[in-house]
Amino acid sequence: MQHKFRIKSRDEAEVKRRIAKLEELWLAIETEAERFGWEPLWNELTLDIGKHIADGDYRVIVPRGKVNAPDVYACYIHRLQNSFPMVAFLPEPEEEDAYKDGAEEARRKATRTMRKRIGETRREMEDVLLRSGGFSASEVMAGEETLHEAFDAYAEQVRRDDTNPGSSDVSDYGHMRLKNIGRLKERHENVQLRTLNTFDAVQGIIDVWRTRPLVKNSYPPRPITKKTAQHHIAELMRFFRWLNRSGDFDWRKPPDFDELNLRVRTTAQENKRNGTHQVATYTISELCLLNEYASIRMRTKCFRRLSMESRSL
């Protein structure tokens, strides 16, 4: 016996619209039943959907119930929407934030799974092509992923790894690394990883920081400090080594990767300043100790010697 729904409306067009949606709902139930080998029957969920349609309400609120994990809740809503597209499934108003967080986490998990499967299939094909001589073993293969996608995944790894002991909060060191990754993403063009498959291409990325780009919005223009450049190069090297080990990306480091030139250049002014002989001086704490414990004769002798060394320079 087919279930009967009461449609209360004097608008003939609206009545036909609801009947069409109910028929679409039953067709979806039959499709799901055929897919899993079930008998097509109404259940508590589909009856509730049908009653919403009969009342002209095409928005179904999905209770979170005992489902605690936000990503599980989001996946459940998505599965309902995919199975019964004739209505809109929405989270409970008080659970909207949990749904958004869960949907983002579910998307990340699905993306990682998809990339892993694609990577496995690709490596199988690479093995076949290697055996057939399609390309040499020294060639680096990569998929359609982009550099910025890799930076984002790397940042997620840093958030998980660099945390305070006994906590999931990112440590100060982790925050510093995340800022550096953000600057790397901002500075470098979002190219496909496959374009970074040679030694020269990777060296070009490093050279951007070796030559010390200008500080953003600085006036007068000045290059970033040598230490800042070294920090960014160190983070880039950690990034490339992580990317080479990652199962979510197909990029592999090119031959002679360990021969990359990482030395940061210094300006002529810095070279001149570093070559200047510095006058020997005492620190404040040393002067305090000298004044407290040395005799008048010893104090006078030390100050006279410092004065003579200064004049000789």
What does this structure look like?
The chain is mainly alpha-helical. Among the domains are: 138-274; 278-313. It contains 11 helices and 2 strands. Strands 1-2 form a two-stranded parallel sheet. β1 (59-62), α3 (70-83) and β2 form a beta-alpha-beta unit. The longest helix is centred in the middle third of the chain and has 37 residues, at 96-132. 14% of the residues are buried.
Summarize the helices and strands and which ones pair or pack:
Blueprint: H1 12-36, H2 44-54, E1 59-62, H3 70-83, E2 88-91, H4 96-132, H5 147-161, H6 172-187, H7 199-210, H8 226-245, H9 268-275, H10 284-293, H11 296-312
Distinctive features:
313 residues; single chain; 2 strands
Distance between the termini: 108 Å
Q: Biggest β-sheet, characterized? A: 2 strands, parallel
Low-confidence stretches: none
Q: Give the helix tally.
A: 11
Q: How many beta-strand elements?
A: 2
Percent of residues in helices comes to 55-70%
Query: Looking across the biggest beta sheet, what order are the strands in?
Result: 1-2
- Over the alpha carbons, how many angstroms does the gyration radius reach? 33 Å
Q: Output the structural class.
A: mainly alpha
Q: What's the quaternary structure here?
A: single chain
Task: Summarize model confidence as the mean pLDDT.
Answer: 85
The percentage of residues in β strands lies in under 5%
Element order: H for helix, E for strand: HHEHEHHHHHHHH
The general outline is elongated
Give a quick summary of the entry.
By secondary structure, the chain is mostly helical. The chain contains 11 helices and 2 strands; from the N terminus they run ααβαβαααααααα. Among the domains are: 137 residues; 36 residues.
